[in-house]
């Protein structure tokens, strides 16, 4: 039965993502897949942009991408990707939602707007350039009763979807290099897995901020910093701190929770090459 297959898949998915099964269920495939990468082109584009925003952080940040969004990893993010939207479950959802949106004079994700605040623990955001929708929810408090929806007039005037893309936002988006379709899929796949964990304890990405498995204190010496930059199908991702590179490659190639089609090749003691189709992403661990 499809329902039984989806329910079983939701239990498996929740073990990897940290969702509760009821939250994981709407994101699973009808075929029984986990659904982490099954989404609209608009969602793929938004998730790749979120990867650029989050993985340009701290002292390594690429100059054109100083959007100051990387700190969301400190809010214990649980990422729940769906086919036509995205749910980001965090501690202190107000802080994270407003960090993603920024302000008219200092947008963090150019073109991100508040569409509505639903109840007290859920924000609905819309990215104007892609049209993609995402929700930011308080951890463990995802509401189901939308009759509590509130209008926030002041926020809507300053940050609402009615506010068009500004010239400054347009310039910031124009400064983002072209990304090939295969690379978009790869970057989107990495972003939705930024908190992925193996239920058996072999890897945990910890939001690119901590090591949930407490394996060593050596990496804790480094302030989190990362840089993601490239063009079309050739990009570089370098970072200090967490996660361990082996955790990232294990998450991407896991037989159940990995990104289909990804291959990983170790090119040196500090570097790895990740391929997806014609996309090539070079990983550099700056801490070794």
Give the SSE map.
Elements: H1 2-17, H2 21-24, H3 41-54, E1 78-81, E2 86-90, H4 93-101, E3 112-118, E4 122-127, E5 133-138, H5 153-159, H6 167-174, H7 181-192, E6 225-231, E7 234-240, H8 245-253, E8 263-266, E9 271-276, E10 279-285
Parallel strand pairs: 2-5, 7-10
Antiparallel strand pairs: 1-2, 3-4, 4-5, 6-7, 8-9, 9-10
Helix pairs in contact: 3-7
Notable traits:
single chain, 288 residues, alpha+beta, five-stranded mixed β-sheet, globular
In words, what does this structure look like?
By secondary structure, the protein is of the alpha+beta class. It has a domain at 2-40 and 68-164. Helix content is 27%, strand content 20%. The protein is built from 8 helices and 10 strands. The protein has helices at 2-17, 21-24, 41-54, 93-101, 153-159, 167-174, 181-192, 245-253; strands spanning 78-81, 86-90, 112-118, 122-127, 133-138, 225-231, 234-240, 263-266, 271-276, 279-285. The strands form 2 sheets. A 5-stranded mixed β-sheet has the order 1-2-5-4-3. A 5-stranded mixed β-sheet has the order 6-7-10-9-8, covered by helices on one side. Strand 9 and strand 10 form a beta hairpin. Helix 3 crosses helix 7 (181-192). The longest helix has 16 residues, at 2-17. It is globular. The chain starts with a helix and ends with a strand.
């Amino acid at each position: 039965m499809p329902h039984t297959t989806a329910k079983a898949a939701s239990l498996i998915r929740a073990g990897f993502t940290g969702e509760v099964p009821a939250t994981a269920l709407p994101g699973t495939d009808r075929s029984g897949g986990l659904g982490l990468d099954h989404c609209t082109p608009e969602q793929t584009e938004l998730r790749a942009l979120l990867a650029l925003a989050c993985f340009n952080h701290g002292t390594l940040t690429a100059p054109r991408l100083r959007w100051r969004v990387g700190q969301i990893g400190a809010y214990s993010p649980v990422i729940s990707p769906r086919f036509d939207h995205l749910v980001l479950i965090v501690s202190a959802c107000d802080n994270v939602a407003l960090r993603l949106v920024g302000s008219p004079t200092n947008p963090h994700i150019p073109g991100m707007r508040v569409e509505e605040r639903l109840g007290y623990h859920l924000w609905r955001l819309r990215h104007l350039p892609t049209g993609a929708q995402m929700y930011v929810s308080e951890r463990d408090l995802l509401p189901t009763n939308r009759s509590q929806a509130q209008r926030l007039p002041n926020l809507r005037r300053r940050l609402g979807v009615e506010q068009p893309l500004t010239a400054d936002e347009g310039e910031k988006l124009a400064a983002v290099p072209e990304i090939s379709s295969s690379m978009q899929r790869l970057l989107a796949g990495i972003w939705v897995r930024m908190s992925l964990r193996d239920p058996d304890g072999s890897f945990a990405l910890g939001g690119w901020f901590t090591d949930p498995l407490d394996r060593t204190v050596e990496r804790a010496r480094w302030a989190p910093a990362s840089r993601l930059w490239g063009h079309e199908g050739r990009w570089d991702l370098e970072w200090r701190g967490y996660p361990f590179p082996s955790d990232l490659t294990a998450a991407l190639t896991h037989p159940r929770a990995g990104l289909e089609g990804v291959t990983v090749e170790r090119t040196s003691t500090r570097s790895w090459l990740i391929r997806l189709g014609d996309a090539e992403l070079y990983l550099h661990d700056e801490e070794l």
